[in-house]
DNA sequence: TCAAAAGTGTTCCCTGTACACCCATGG
DNA sequence: CCATGGGTGTACAGGGAACACTTTTGA
């Protein structure tokens, strides 16, 4: 595996907050650098003649194996607090790379994106600099490098604002799901409990849900309907 | 006057949509390049060791003479459609600059900001590359270079969404104003008419307006109260 | 027949909207 | 005393929140 070379634009990067949902919990993909106990958001660089959005899609496909990903830009971070060349130097040295004047040691302005993906369909894949990439519960994140924690919070803030407006939540679920699962996604994102009856009514009143056959789980209670999102 | 040198980060710029309000109209500061009939948003570059937000504030102060400006980042644009080196080449040549391999001819990713300022307190000041900077009505903008029209639309979109949420509108008005003026600002931004009675009630119910003495305009009707925003 | 969860119904309250009415002011 | 615009009152509709009731399922 090889490092990015200077076919990339210097001083510009992107970082992505990749949300998934499983076991009633909101989860985020976090990578760990080799032997470093240093945790970070998956990010990358933009090629000289590559559209910014394409660069992010490329990176996300490599990390998740997914092709069509719901992606939204939320903020660009350009403070000097985020300039910590020692950390990147240690990461590069650990890999045995020549580090003097390496372009990755420069000061970076990073564009933050968040993605919503279906937890089950992902195969997390590490990149050249990291030895692991895994899901972490939002409320049990490890300490993240630089300002990445701030990125997570700002991404979630944006997601909360746009949750109703753009009906994003279905990106986190499989094709068919129960009303309870949909409600759990909302609750995980919003961080609060919602009234079951009112939630059901509100979702149905939007007219974007397709009702399917009931799902018999074997539980000793009424079987719930399955729903999918209409694709018009 | 001198051009920016390479103490600036290459390939990164910012552009600002500066909103003002006068004569019931929403206005935007647009600059024109020397003898070019080319119109653009005021923008600039980031110094190597300068925080992004500071760079934008610096540029806006130079252009407007104002110090404390309400400023909000709204989106970062990184498509390849915005790479039009011929235009920048002509602008530089017109100024008699050496243009071969000039860093300003490279491909740029630009961070979009919008600002809200008090129309009356501004002294628009051109920069080295432009010979004029003036207010244009939002609904009578000239044709703008590259994707700057798209920036304007996206800025206004963000402003509309955050208008109520953050109570931004007072940045566009003088210290004291009438309820009618405030309503006109809202109507100019939202692009729709609002009910006078309900608008008044809603604003007052927010508890952020301080009522002052009445303003006698000499008009043959009831004199309106003046208001200011509470600063807590 | 019982508990648990799903589905639906009812009531209350708040907010936004539309419209009506009175008040101050200068001609 | 009239036209104009400012300030306030009222009545109605729609949506959210809280809660109750019924239905389905397996044990």
TrEMBL record, chains A, B:
Residues 22-153 form the Nudix hydrolase domain. CDD domains: NUDIX_NadM_like. It comes from the Bacteria. Pfam families: NUDIX, WHD_NrtR. SUPFAM superfamilies: Nudix, Winged helix' DNA-binding domain. Residues 170-229 form the NrtR DNA-binding winged helix domain. InterPro entries: NUDIX_hydrolase-like_dom_sf (IPR015797), NUDIX_hydrolase_dom (IPR000086), WH-like_DNA-bd_sf (IPR036388), WH_DNA-bd_sf (IPR036390), WHD_NrtR (IPR054105). Transmembrane segments: none annotated. This is ADP-ribose pyrophosphatase YjhB, NUDIX family. It comes from Algoriphagus halophilus.
């Amino acid at each position: 595996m090889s490092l990015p070379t200077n076919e990339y634009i210097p001083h510009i990067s992107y970082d992505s907050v990749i949300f998934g949902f499983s076991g009633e919990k909101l989860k985020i993909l976090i990578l760990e650098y080799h032997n470093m106990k240093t945790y970070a958001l998956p990010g990358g660089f933009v090629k000289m003649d590559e559209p910014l959005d394409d660069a992010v899609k490329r990176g996300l496909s490599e990390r998740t194996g997914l092709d069509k990903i719901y992606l939204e830009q939320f903020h660009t971070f350009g403070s000097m607090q985020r300039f910590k060349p020692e950390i990147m130097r240690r990461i590069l040295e650990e890999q045995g790379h020549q580090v003097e004047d390496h372009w990755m040691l420069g000061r970076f302005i990073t564009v933050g994106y968040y993605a919503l993906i279906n937890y089950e369909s992902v195969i997390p894949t590490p990149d050249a600099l990291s030895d692991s990439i895994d899901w972490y519960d939002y409320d049990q994140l490890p300490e993240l490098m630089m300002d990445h924690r701030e990125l997570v919070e700002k991404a979630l803030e944006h997601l909360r604002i746009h949750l109703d407006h753009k009906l994003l939540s279905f990106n986190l679920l499989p094709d068919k799901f129960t009303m309870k699962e949909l409600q759990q996604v909302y609750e995980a994102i919003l961080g609060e409990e919602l009234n079951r009856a009112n939630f059901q009514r509100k979702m149905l009143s939007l007219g974007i849900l397709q009702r399917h056959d009931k799902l018999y789980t074997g539980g000793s209670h009424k079987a719930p309907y399955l729903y999918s999102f209409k694709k018009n």
